[in-house]
């Protein structure tokens, strides 16, 4: 476009010069006007190109080192309020928000992950709208969706899921959103994950399932939800061949033991040491009694 404009401008100037040499007054007057128009167009085009160049330079300009350090610190400390203020200031300065949102904490945690964990839906929407990826990863494979679950922010998890976030994504340790919810005893989150179709039998690198994490951490309501609503598998064994029932007996959690047995847990399943849940219960008469019912 600029090339075509230059050609046209050159033609106008050339025509004006040619006409200016004639003796006819009207034609000479026309030539003078053409030259004036040419000068005007040169000035305007210079201003246009200068503005365009300035805008382009502004959009590609990187934040200062001090700004980046403060941004990274806000991410590390889960300061979604500071991130929102800094994002506003960055955009108001005419800078590219995509470049800012691509700057993470040293461990790969992003601003979007912080906003997701803290439950700031407005900020999450703004960041995604400005170019943040809902599938970005930390160095250990964490996603914004997993951070939403980590913060027990169901409304954020639902929104990210609706935008296409992978509900079953697993980190480098094999933990998924369901694993996090089970380990933290987030009953409401587990209920929604089950309704949304999450894999509640996914195993981590230690071959633990969400149910096993919930049992091991003694989250009775989470165990009940996984069993009654999710139909969780009860006889999965970890890397040491312990089952959820082994963990329940080791914790002396009689209510969980009863629930597991009601849902088909095998009391004769041996771990790597050849011990069954019944063997582990022998020193405790009350726990032994649960296996005789």
Description:
By secondary structure, the chain is mostly helical. It folds into three domains: 1-60; 61-166, Ankyrin repeat-containing domain (Serine Threonine Protein Phosphatase 5, Tetratricopeptide repeat, Alpha Horseshoe); 168-293, Serine Threonine Protein Phosphatase 5, Tetratricopeptide repeat, CATH 1.25.40. Helix content is 61%, strand content 0%. Mean pLDDT is 86; it is low at 48-59.
Features:
293 residues, mainly alpha, Serine Threonine Protein Phosphatase 5, Tetratricopeptide repeat, 3 domains, 61% helix
Provide a count of the helices: 17
Percent helix among the residues? 55-70%
Could you tell me the number of beta strands? Answer: 0
Task: Please give the largest β-sheet.
Answer: none
CATH-defined fold name of the largest domain:
Serine Threonine Protein Phosphatase 5, Tetratricopeptide repeat
Tell me, what's the shape?
elongated
Secondary structure layout:
Elements: H1 2-20, H2 25-60, H3 65-76, H4 80-92, H5 97-101, H6 111-118, H7 121-129, H8 144-150, H9 154-162, H10 177-184, H11 187-195, H12 210-216, H13 220-228, H14 244-251, H15 254-262, H16 277-281, H17 285-290
Helix pairs in contact: 1-2, 3-4, 6-7, 6-8, 8-9, 8-10, 10-11, 10-12, 11-13, 12-13, 12-14, 13-15, 14-15
In short:
The chain is 61% helix and 0% strand. The protein has helices at residues 2-20, 25-60, 65-76, 80-92, 97-101, 111-118, 121-129, 144-150, 154-162, 177-184, 187-195, 210-216, 220-228, 244-251, 254-262, 277-281, 285-290.
